[in-house]
C-alpha cells in the first residue's frame, strides 16, 4: 500500500501499511484504479466535447466518482468495485456517442481502453500494476477550444 490521498498521511509523506484514517490497502488500490478509469473517461469526454455532444451523465459521474476518492468516510471495497464498473460503462456509452457523431474512438492511450477485471482480487492486482508502466503514456492536456 502507498496512499497519499489525504492530509492525514503519516508524516505528510503517505501511508504504507494502513491508512491513518483506517483505509486498507485494498481500498487504496481500488481508488487508484477508479482514478485511472476516470483518466480514460476524461479523454473520451474531451473528444465528445469537440463534437458538442451531451455529457450530462459523464459530468455527474465524474464528480461523484472523484469525490468518493477524496472523502474519508466510506471505505467499503464493494462501493469502489461498483464505481470502477460504472466508470467503464459510462465511458463506453460516451465512446458510442462519439463514434456515431464521427469522432475519434482510438484515443491512443491505455486508460481510454481500460477494461476492469471481474473480481475484487483481480481489480486490486490491476491497480498494483507498476505505476511506471501505467504512466508511460504521458497525455498532453487537450485544449478543445483551440485558444484556452
Instruction: Please mark out the parts with pLDDT under 50 across 5 or more consecutive residues, or reply none.
Output: 134-141
The percentage helix is 40-55%
Radius of gyration: 16 Å
Q: What name does the CATH topology carry?
A: Substrate Binding Domain Of Dnak, Chain:A, Domain 2
Shape: elongated
Distance between the termini: 38 Å
For the report, how would you describe the main beta sheet? none
Overall pLDDT score: 82
Order of helices and strands: HHHHH
Measured by DSSP, the beta-strand proportion falls in under 5%
CATH architecture label name:
Up-down Bundle
Task: Using the coordinates above, name the CATH class.
Answer: Mainly Alpha
Count of domain modules: 1
**Number of helices, where a helix is a run of at least 4 consecutive DSSP H or I residues:** 5
SSE class: mainly alpha
The total strand number stands at 0
Secondary structure: elements and pairs:
Elements: H1 25-50, H2 56-70, H3 77-100, H4 120-127, H5 131-134
Helix pairs in contact: 1-2, 1-3, 1-4, 2-3
Q: How does this model look, in words?
A:
The chain has 148 residues and is mostly helical. It has one domain: Substrate Binding Domain Of Dnak, Chain:A, Domain 2, CATH 1.20.1270. 52% of the residues lie in helices and 0% in strands. It has 5 helices and no strands. It has helices at residues 25-50, 56-70, 77-100, 120-127, 131-134. Helix 1 runs antiparallel to helix 2 (56-70), helix 1 (25-50) packs parallel to helix 3 and helix 2 (56-70) runs antiparallel to helix 3. The longest helix is centred in the first third of the chain and has 26 residues, at 25-50. The radius of gyration is 16 Å and the shape is elongated. The protein starts with 24 loop residues before the first helix and ends in a 14-residue tail after the last helix. The relative contact order is 0.16. Residues 134-141 have low confidence and may be disordered.
Amino acid at each position: 500500500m502507498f496512499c497519499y490521498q489525504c492530509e492525514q498521511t503519516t508524516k505528510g509523506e503517505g501511508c504504507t501499511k494502513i491508512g491513518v484514517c483506517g483505509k486498507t490497502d485494498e481500498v487504496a488500490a481500488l481508488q487508484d484504479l477508479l482514478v485511472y478509469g476516470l483518466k480514460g473517461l476524461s479523454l473520451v469526454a474531451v473528444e465528445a466535447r469537440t463534437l458538442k455532444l451531451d455529457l450530462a451523465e459523464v459530468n455527474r459521474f465524474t464528480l461523484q466518482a472523484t469525490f468518493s476518492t477524496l472523502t474519508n468516510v466510506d471505505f467499503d471495497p464493494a462501493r469502489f468495485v461498483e464505481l470502477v464498473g460504472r466508470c467503464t460503462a459510462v465511458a463506453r456509452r460516451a465512446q458510442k456517442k462519439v463514434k456515431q457523431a464521427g469522432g475519434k474512438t482510438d484515443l491512443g492511450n491505455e486508460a481510454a481502453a481500460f477494461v476492469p477485471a471481474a473480481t475484487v482480487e483481480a481489480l486490486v492486482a490491476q491497480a498494483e500494476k507498476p505505476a511506471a508502466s501505467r504512466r508511460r503514456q504521458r497525455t498532453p492536456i487537450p485544449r478543445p477550444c483551440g485558444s484556452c
